[in-house]
Design goal:
With 242 residues, the chain is α/β, with parallel strands linked by helices. It is built from 11 helices and 4 strands. It has one domain: Rossmann fold. It has a 4-stranded parallel beta sheet, sandwiched between helices.
């Protein structure tokens, strides 16, 4: 079973990228589960003894409902037990749909990649890194070459369904309350920087760009990705995360 996590800054294009993958006939894509970044407690005795954060079992119940699979709960409320229960449910949901790959896209999992590495055997991570001004201005766009490059990185054949079925697949991923993601269910629009020009003017874009440029990002400076991930994703400007 291929187990893929899509992570990145919110509004960086993670849902759009996920929808391309979700349209692949070998892929079963999950809704945002928020399991891993909520799994670990901030500190204290629970964390010291390896117990999961309070409420994690209820989160797993929610995931079982979203996936339409049998609910699994660990015997002991540990971080490792909850991670194993999540993997078992995701694997089962994918197999029930004839898929050999599942994709989970919660942007905030970026902050829990160490847990993903520890708890999800063979996990692959796709970290979306996009232009900072466009992210701040909430632009979601994707380079035309993204599906082919992404499939090559994941070892999947690139299919026409990833483009022709993307909008329909996105409709099954966006919850009714997630109105800010509704653009992903419509046609693609080419326009890197368009949103920034629509919502801000004057010196604001330059200020945002200077602030973003001041943040060191290993993926853009030749280092390896978070927790050793070596993924590559095209950005609007043609850069690739390393």
């Amino acid at each position: 079973m291929r187990r893929v996590f899509v992570v990145g800054c919110p509004r960086s294009g993670t849902t759009l990228l996920q929808s391309f993958l979700a349209a692949h006939p070998q892929v079963h894509s999950l809704p945002e589960t928020h399991v891993f970044h909520e799994l670990r407690t901030p500190g204290g005795v629970r964390r010291a003894v390896g117990l999961a954060a309070a409420g994690t079992s209820r989160r797993l119940d929610d995931v079982a409902g979203w996936l339409g699979t049998r609910r699994r709960r660990p015997v002991l409320p540990t971080v490792r037990g909850h991670g194993a229960a999540f993997v078992a449910m995701a694997d089962a949901a994918a197999r029930e749909r004839g898929a050999d790959t599942w994709v989970e896209k919660t942007p905030a999992t970026l902050y829990a990649l160490d847990l993903v590495e520890q708890l999800v055997p063979g996990a692959q991570v796709v970290h979306v890194v996009r232009d900072g001004v466009d992210v701040v201005a909430s632009l979601c766009a994707v380079a035309e070459a993204a599906p082919a490059a992404l499939c090559a990185d994941l070892g999947l054949p690139c299919t026409d369904e990833m483009v022709t079925g993307r909008a329909a697949a996105a409709g099954g991923l966006v919850k009714d309350v997630e109105h800010w993601k509704s653009d992903n269910t419509g046609p693609l629009r080419d326009g890197a920087g368009r949103r920034a020009r629509e919502v801000v003017d004057g010196p604001t874009p330059r200020h945002v760009r200077s602030q973003v440029a001041a943040v060191p990002v290993e993926e853009l400076t030749g280092g390896r990705g978070p927790s050793g991930c070596g993924c590559a994703v095209p950005t609007d400007s043609g850069r690739r995360s390393s």
